[in-house]
Write a structure and sequence with these properties.
Blueprint (H helix, E strand, L loop, with lengths): L1 E3 H4 L3 E2 L4 H10 L4 E8 L8 E11 L7 E6 L5 E6 L9 E5 L4 E2 L3 E2 L3 E3 L2 E3 L2 E2 L2 H4 L10 E2 L9 H4 L4 E7 L11 H14 L5 E2 L44 H9 L7 H13 L16
Antiparallel strand pairs: 1-14, 2-15, 3-14, 4-5, 4-7, 5-6, 7-12, 7-13, 8-9, 10-11
Length: 285
């Protein structure tokens, strides 16, 4: 199982480094396999910088390409052939220099496009892994400074990830809160300053009105308790960025808000959830 250091710190305030947390986990019987540093975007967009499109003109041998001159902060204008429909002179953009490796292991190389040499690539969101749009290049605010690294400009962060084994007798450690709770007890016992807190759920309020779908347990021996809650007017869509980042950190790929929140709860408190479409439930229960 993977444990995100930054996610763990949501519940456990302490000054321990990721390596010290791993050592403490080992001391309380949780077998740690490794501690690694994970980039928010693999590679951290090394070689990608803010740039300015100084010139932009139509490609003489194409009806959709443009030949641009790009200032990437080095003082030398670079010729870049761009096929984005929204590219224009004066824009601030994210530019991948020669040698940069984008998500998907796509390496930027010098190329000749319709007879014109191109020395880099002006990027769209999806090419950088920071969004899904491929309608055109990502245009930045006018105050963006050429030469600024994409990692700095986008405030990309890294997170320590602790990978560990779950043994049959330590199911209590199969979640971030479970590990935080055990570490808290260990730290307090050893007089190490720390503070443990559960998430604030004071804003949650039960809904009013009818329409809750009842749960009937047919095998009370196999499932002595099965609880459910009915949530109405749910719109399926992408999860908020904070949720996606937490799932990415432990190696999960976000799907949508319904699937993602179920996975979040599982890895937060260790409670598996099953989500059902109310329209597909027959018999009313």
């Amino acid at each position: 199982m993977k444990l995100s250091y930054s996610w763990l710190k949501d519940y456990l305030e302490c000054d321990l480094t990721p390596q010290q947390v791993a050592e403490a986990m080992t001391s309380i019987g949780i077998e740690v396999d490794s501690v690694s540093e994970e980039e928010e975007i693999p590679g951290g967009l090394a070689g990608v910088v803010v740039a300015e499109v100084v010139e932009c003109e139509s490609h003489p041998n194409s009806d959709h390409l443009h030949i641009t001159k790009v200032n990437d902060g080095t003082g030398e204008l670079l010729t870049v052939v761009c096929g984005a429909p929204n590219v224009a002179a004066g824009q601030k953009v994210l530019f991948a220099r020669l040698g940069a490796v984008l998500p998907g292991d796509f390496k930027i190389k010098k190329s000749k496009i319709r007879g014109v040499e191109s020395f880099g690539m002006i990027c769209a969101e999806d090419e950088l892994g920071i969004g899904t749009s491929h309608d055109g290049i990502k245009v930045l605010p006018a105050d963006a400074v050429p030469g600024t690294t994409a990692k700095e400009y986008l405030h990309l962060k890294s997170d320590a990830v602790i990978e560990y084994e779950i043994t049959a007798n330590r199911v209590d450690a199969a979640s971030h809160i479970g590990v935080a709770r055990d570490l808290y007890a260990y730290l307090r016992l050893n007089d190490i300053p720390c503070k443990f807190s559960y998430p604030d759920v004071s804003a949650f309020k039960e809904g009013e009105g009818e329409g809750a779908i009842p749960v009937e347990v047919l095998d009370t021996d196999g499932a002595p308790e099965y609880e459910g809650i009915t949530i109405k007017d749910v719109k399926v869509g992408p999860s908020p960025e904070w949720l996606q980042k937490k799932l990415f950190a432990i190696g999960l790929h976000p799907v949508n808000n319904i699937v993602d929140i179920s996975n979040f709860v599982l890895f937060e408190v260790g409670q598996p959830l099953h989500t059902f479409d109310a329209d597909q439930i027959t018999g009313g229960k």
